[in-house]
Write a structure and sequence with these properties.
The complex is a heterodimer of chains A (319) and B (251).
Chain A lengths: L1 E14 L2 E15 L4 E5 L6 H8 L7 E6 L2 E2 L4 H7 E4 L11 H11 L4 H14 L15 H13 L5 E5 L7 H16 L3 E6 L2 H7 L2 E6 L2 E6 L1 H7 L3 E6 L5 H8 L5 E6 L5 E5 L2 H14 L6 E5 L3 H9 L7
Parallel strand pairs in A: 3-8, 3-9, 6-7, 7-8
Antiparallel strand pairs in A: 1-2, 1-4, 4-5, 9-10, 11-13, 11-14, 12-13
Chain B lengths: L1 H19 L2 H17 L3 H5 L4 H22 L2 H10 L1 H6 L5 H29 L6 H29 L2 H17 L12 H7 L3 H13 L6 H26 L4
Classes of the chains: A alpha/beta (319), B mainly alpha (251).
Membrane topology (chain A): Peripheral membrane protein
Subcellular location (chain A): Cell membrane
Main location (chain A): membrane
């Protein structure tokens, strides 16, 4: 559905008198299959939105190429526009218009006739449970309702692919769960869904496959399960005082069962081990020998954050 | 065909939103009406005009051109609000014609200007202004072209600067000298030679002269076709440039 090779974009930004070039996206290779929910995960400023805007024909890439739903992004952007839907992060509805007016207009901008546009608007209002306030102005809607209108706007022309930029940012937990269901429904309807998010749980729960982006580059790509399996084994988190942490790190570094060791900023260690059950007694014994007291010890399966951490050296939560 | 259809769609939408809040048309017309009621009566003695009607023939065309210039130049503010709401981006991901995104909006501005111009003309009739209908329609064409140009330029600049804080001083800086150098309030025939020399380079001064000739019933005057041509060419350039801004990346 989507193939990209070496997609690049840099911006010139001016701070005072100095102009500097920021490489927002530096060579992205992606491949998204038909009918999947593909997640683009990364911290704010990683280049997710820029990549998405390039794929949606809103900004022109500096280099690289992409094929989207069979159309060439650079040679036939008009054709790409007909085949995709795009829902921006910051909203796209006008306060003084009603949901129905917005939907009809959007359908008509895609070249759909008047009668058909009205039918589609009614169907979308029904499907997104917006029917009862369809003729009220958008400024009266709640955040979740408004977001649903925006998604409906993005798919009114029945595109093959829909791009959703941070669809759940700013929503309360209930609206968020609701939105996840809506997104899954799009896939059931046969659409390929491309979302960006900086929520780990969202990428994990919702996406069939993800790409992790950092500093304008894709650092990992695969199913959430595969990516977690890549850092095979378990993670043991040891809670320590900030003062004793360096000594503990020294004591455990180089032990055969520790594959990787990381210091947690506010004291404590994260140890990547082959098998948690056998490693924990050995860790406890080693720390005891060194005369170091610990507050806690936890064992958990690697999360996407651990994937991010091993690929970039920092936690997604911190960045 | 597609351009006409898309333009009509955008125009309809914009016009519908305008009629939902028509107060803006009247706010826009308030200032010129004040000039008409409170400033124009000074003109007969000041211009040494034989009658009040003669004075209005000179003043009303200038006032209408002023309305067209200012009405157009400040339309960009609405566009910045639309940019912020994401409405422009939402249009830009569809295959809609970029030129239509501009034309639909600018034509709405032209229509609202003509409504205002009619209000002013009707009021002026009460003050004994008389003008031939054909000439008046041609004068409205001039006004429409001016509004088309200034609103297009305003939209183009709005897409470039993207903030009200930058747009307001910019438009004021442009509008002031343009206004003073076009002989809108008083004819430039009163001006010293150097001032007339500068004003000859101001397209709006040609537009004002042409419109005045029309109000005077002097259809054959060269100023009429010259003014119309100059403004038509500039309107085409303005529309072309602004449509390119719609096609380019905007946030």
């Amino acid at each position: 559905m989507i193939q990209t090779r070496g997609l690049r974009k840099s911006f010139r930004s001016r701070a005072g008198r100095e102009t500097k070039t920021v490489e927002a996206v530096r060579g992205v290779d992606l491949s998204v299959a038909e009918g999947e929910i593909f997640g683009f995960l990364g911290p704010n400023g990683a280049g997710k939105t820029t990549t998405l805007r390039m794929l949606a024909t809103l900004i022109e890439p500096d280099g690289g190429e992409a094929t989207i739903a069979g159309a060439d992004l650079r040679k036939a952007p008009g054709e790409v526009r007909r085949r995709i839907g795009y829902v921006a992060q910051g909203g796209s509805t006008w306060d003084e218009s009603t949901a129905r007016e917005e939907l009809v207009l959007q359908a008509r901008l895609y070249g759909i006739g008047k009668a058909e546009a009205h039918q589609r608007a009614s169907r979308a209002l029904e499907a997104f449970q917006l029917a009862e306030f369809a003729d009220r102005k958008c400024k009266t809607y709640s955040g979740g309702q408004r977001r649903r209108v925006e998604i409906a706007l993005g798919i009114i022309h029945e595109p093959k692919i829909v791009f959703l930029d941070e669809p759940t940012t700013g929503l309360d937990p209930q609206s968020r769960a609701h939105m996840w269901d809506e997104i899954r429904r799009l896939r059931t309807d046969g659409m390929t869904v491309f979302i960006t998010t900086h929520y780990l749980d969202e990428a994990d729960a919702l996406c069939d496959r993800i790409a992790i982006m950092d500093h304008g580059e894709v650092v990992a790509e695969g199913t959430p399960a595969d990516l977690k399996r890549e850092i095979s084994g378990d993670v043991v988190q040891v809670g320590l005082d900030i003062t004793t942490t360096p000594q503990a790190a020294q004591a455990l570094d180089g032990e055969a069962y520790v594959r990787k060791l990381e210091t947690v900023d506010d004291g404590g260690l994260r140890l990547y081990v082959e098998e948690g059950a056998t490693a924990i007694p050995q860790i406890l014994r080693r720390l005891d020998q060194a005369g170091l007291a610990l507050h806690s010890i936890e064992l958990h399966r690697p999360s996407l954050d651990d994937v991010f951490l091993t690929k970039t050296g920092r936690s997604l939560r911190e960045s | 065909m597609k351009l006409a259809r898309d333009t009509w769609l955008i125009f309809q939408r914009q016009f519908q939103l305008l009629t939902r809040n028509p107060v803006w048309v009247f706010v826009g017309v308030f200032q010129p009406v004040m000039y008409l009621l409170l400033f124009a009566p000074l003109l007969k003695p000041a211009l040494n005009a034989p009658t009040q009607a003669e004075a209005y023939k000179i003043f009303v065309p200038g006032l209408l051109v002023l309305l067209a210039i200012f009405g157009g130049l400040f339309q960009g503010f609405g566009l910045i609000a639309e940019l912020r709401a994401g409405v422009i981006e939402r249009s830009r991901v569809t295959p809609v014609s970029r030129l239509a995104l501009l034309l639909g909006r600018s034509l709405r501005d032209v229509v609202s200007l003509i409504v205002q111009a009619v209000i002013i003309t009707l009021l002026a009739l009460l003050f004994d202004l008389r003008v031939v209908l054909g000439d008046l329609l041609l004068a409205y064409l001039m006004l429409a072209l001016i509004a088309l140009m200034t609103s297009a330029v305003s939209y183009g600049v709005a897409l470039k600067v993207k903030s009200e804080d930058a747009l307001a001083p910019l438009m004021n800086t442009v509008a002031q000298p343009v206004l003073l150098l076009s002989g809108i309030l008083l004819p430039l025939s009163f001006a010293p030679g150097w001032l007339q020399g500068i004003a000859d380079w101001n397209p709006f001064s040609w537009a004002v002269d042409g419109t005045r000739a029309l109000f005077a019933g002097d259809l054959g005057n060269d100023k009429v076709w010259q003014g119309l041509t100059i403004i038509a060419v500039l309107a085409a350039l303005g529309v072309y440039w602004a449509a390119r801004q719609f096609a380019r990346s905007v946030r």
